[in-house]
Specification:
Number of helices of chain B: 13
CATH topology of chain A: ABC transporter involved in vitamin B12 uptake, BtuC
Distance between the termini of chain A: 25 Å
Number of domains of chain A: 1
Shape of chain A: globular
Number of strands of chain A: 2
CATH architecture of chain A: Orthogonal Bundle
CATH class of chain A: Mainly Alpha
Order of helices and strands of chain B: HHHHHHHHHHHHH
Helix content of chain B: over 70%
Shape of chain B: globular
Largest interface: A-B, 50 and 49 residues
Structural class of chain B: mainly alpha
Strand content of chain B: under 5%
Structural class of chain A: mainly alpha
Helix content of chain A: 55-70%
Largest sheet of chain B: none
Strand order of the largest sheet of chain A: 1-2
Number of strands of chain B: 0
Number of helices of chain A: 13
Largest sheet of chain A: 2 strands, antiparallel
Radius of gyration of chain A: 22 Å
Oligomer: heterodimer
Chain lengths: 362, 313
């Protein structure tokens, strides 16, 4: 009888990780072909239209980069948190907190020239997002409250809080009753990178953040501590790693990155805050981080992929009438596929003829 | 005085039970999964899938109970997927659950949009009607509060008893509780750890889907985007609050329903002075508070989140 046994792999090469992510993305597209066919369109036509819609022209590519910008930041937020096994599912809320802080500082409170105002707005957003994530981290450390549930529930609370403010104290009186905040002053707006394109300075911030985070994780003591805490908390504590302090630092950085995503959307794209600022950037960030194997530089590529899926699906939807929820399907399936791919990175399948009991080790 | 007036009305308690019903299904479902050692964060998406599938079946001409079955089946399928990923392959329960939520939600929305491309007002079905049980419905106060609800609410109450009986009075229940605490003891008895866990996750997920079905087939009569609105996550918090016990789960859901019904009535009283969002935040704040209160003493199933592989001690 044929038996399949699993043997743990000792070390996994970077190439293998990249290949697994690519296969996962392709598998997601293959699976989504089924619902696309049901919608009455040939999957290949739909995918070709998606590709053209996201990379087919300079304009399309600029839209993809614009969409990738917040995803890089929320992806980094998830990546660093998940490395430390701090399950921050609250990037969506932290994004709104950052956006709110940006409006608070950047809509006339400070009258500074752009070179000073933009850093002030950015800093305010990072602090707001970071502090919002410190709450669940503290609740976890102090009371043992599960951070998954707390961060998820905080998302709803923060968005309601934002709705309350944009219908009240910070409502724009000139917006014809539309619930949106007072606009950001011009000096606080991120510069555009190219004329007549929406892609903006937030992309540079995202790339710098990815590079900085990569250096922090791979080259610094904090990075070592984060990895140690993520792999085995008890062993890390025994080895003298300040576990709680590390968790709080991770919470601050993770929330801060998500907050920066909110600043970037307000100062780079919208110019004001509304309750539909983010179409789930926080949740998509989790997929980005997983596709990237929690690697900060991989996050940039994964964010570009996820952004292209969303931008491409919008364009494909306009041309064919197939619902653009297709993008959410591709993204969700990519996450599940890359998770399964992780299994094959951890274990090598071995086919044997003998009746050896199935062995699985950690 | 006014508060007492609110608390003594039939309408208030009937509303509390109505609000609690989807949570009862959800908490029971989450409890089944977690008792067997598997956290199922797919719950939010499974709610959506259940709401969508049940409603769509009825909209396509099936009977209401067939719709309930279809919803349960949809939940079971996503539960099976979660079980394969977390129990068979031993992958991260957190990430798999989030993935299931994203998948189930987007599949529900995509199917709805594909079936109904150009509708602005969601089409309606004729939902479950309030029961009128002879004798029982005529009991003063208790009659209208408990027995003039829809059949799905009664089903939720019956399921609480059924799950409690299953967990504490049957050999299967003993095995289920053991598999979440000490899976090796199950293996030592020659039972299948994986089989039990897969079964629990599938059954629990179909219970979650019933919570969703209640929304579109009893509380409302149509499917809306975003209608689940965090109810699944609230259930995950309530399970901890209920220390993984069906009776306490019922109590927690009812308490929650009562608070929610109360804040809705308070809203009509003081709504002019306090923004509506403050009230809408209450359920989420309440869930976090409940979690903080019990978290330290919470008696988590000892093998929750821990994958189990044959031959591993």
């Amino acid at each position: 009888m044929m038996r399949i046994s699993l043997q743990p792999r000792s070390n996994v090469s970077l190439n293998a990780r990249i290949i697994i992510s690519i296969i996962a993305a392709l598998a997601a597209f293959a699976l989504v072909a089924v619902p696309v066919s049901f919608a009455g369109v040939s999957p290949l036509t739909a995918y070709w239209l998606m590709f053209k819609g996201s990379f087919g022209s300079m304009f399309a590519f600029s839209e993809t980069l614009t969409r990738a910008t917040p995803l890089i930041l929320t992806g980094l937020a998830a990546a660093i948190a998940f490395r430390a096994k701090l399950w921050n599912i609250g990037a969506e809320g932290q994004l709104y907190a950052g956006a709110l802080a940006a409006i608070g500082v950047g809509s006339g409170l400070l009258s500074l020239p752009a070179p000073l105002l933009i850093p002030a707005v950015v800093l305010a957003g990072i602090v707001a997002g970071g502090l919002l994530m410190v709450i669940p981290a503290l609740l976890k450390l102090r009371f043992g409250a599960d951070e998954v549930v707390v961060t998820l529930l905080l998302n709803f609370i923060v968005i309601l809080f934002v709705q309350m403010l944009i219908e009240g104290p910070i409502k724009d009186p000139l917006a014809l009753g539309w619930p949106q905040s007072v606009p950001l002053v011009d000096a606080a707006a991120f510069p555009k990178l190219f004329a007549r394109m929406r892609v903006h300075g937030g992309l540079i911030l995202g790339l710098v953040a990815a590079l900085a985070l990569w250096i922090v994780i791979s080259k610094t003591v904090l990075g070592f501590e984060i990895r140690a805490v993520g792999q085995n908390k008890a062993a890390a504590r025994f080895a003298g790693v300040p576990v709680n302090a590390t968790m709080l630092k991770v919470a601050l950085i993770s929330g801060g990155l998500a907050g920066l995503a909110g600043v970037s959307e307000v100062a780079g794209v919208k110019g004001y805050l509304s309750a539909d600022l983010s179409p789930g950037f926080g949740y998509s960030g989790i997929v980005v981080a997983m596709l990237a194997g929690l690697h900060p530089l991989g996050v940039v590529l994964a964010a570009l992929f996820v952004a292209a899926v969303f931008v491409g699906a919008d364009s494909m939807s306009r041309a064919t009438g197939v619902s653009n929820y297709l993008a959410d399907l591709v993204v969700a399936l990519s996450l599940l596929c890359v998770l399964v791919g992780g299994f094959f990175l951890r274990f090598r399948l071995k086919f044997e003829r003998a009746a050896v009991p199935v062995q699985m080790g950690e | 005085m006014e508060i007492l007036d609110i608390l003594l009305t039939v309408n208030f308690w009937a509303a509390a039970i109505r609000i609690a019903t989807p949570l009862i299904f959800g908490v029971l479902g989450a409890l089944m999964c977690e008792r067997a050692g598997v956290l199922n964060l797919g719950i939010e998406g499974i709610f959506t899938a259940g709401a969508m599938a049940g409603w769509m079946a009825v909209w396509l001409g099936c009977g209401l109970w067939t719709g309930v079955l279809v919803a349960a089946l949809a939940g079971a399928i996503f539960g099976l997927l979660h079980a394969i990923l977390t129990v068979v392959l031993g992958l991260s329960q957190h990430v798999s659950g989030i993935g299931i939520t994203l998948l189930a939600t987007s599949l529900g929305y995509f199917t709805y949009r594909t079936a109904l491309p150009n509708v602005s007002t969601p089409p309606r079905i004729i939902p479950f009607q309030p029961l009128d049980i002879p004798v029982l419905s005529d009991i003063p106060f208790i009659g209208p509060v408990l027995f003039q609800q829809t059949a799905l609410t009664l089903l939720a109450f019956i399921l609480v008893g059924l799950v409690a009986w299953l967990l504490y009075r049957t050999p299967l229940g003993l095995a289920l509780r053991a598999v979440g605490d000490n899976p090796s003891s199950i293996e030592a008895q020659g039972l299948s750890v994986r089989g039990l866990r897969i079964g629990a996750v599938v059954a629990g997920s179909s219970l979650m889907a019933l919570g969703g079905a209640f929304l579109t087939m009893s509380a409302f009569d149509a499917f809306f985007f975003g209608m689940v609105n965090g109810r699944g996550w609230i259930c995950i918090a309530l399970v901890v609050f209920a220390s993984w016990q069906p009776g306490k789960a019922l109590l927690g859901a009812l308490l929650f329903g009562a608070f929610d019904a109360f804040q809705i009535r308070l809203q009509t009283e003081v709504g002019a002075f306090v923004p509506g969002q403050v009230f809408l935040m209450m359920p989420y704040l309440l869930s976090i508070l409940a979690l903080i209160l019990v978290a330290r003493k919470a008696d988590y199933p000892r093998s929750l989140l821990v994958p189990w592989f044959k031959g591993q001690r």
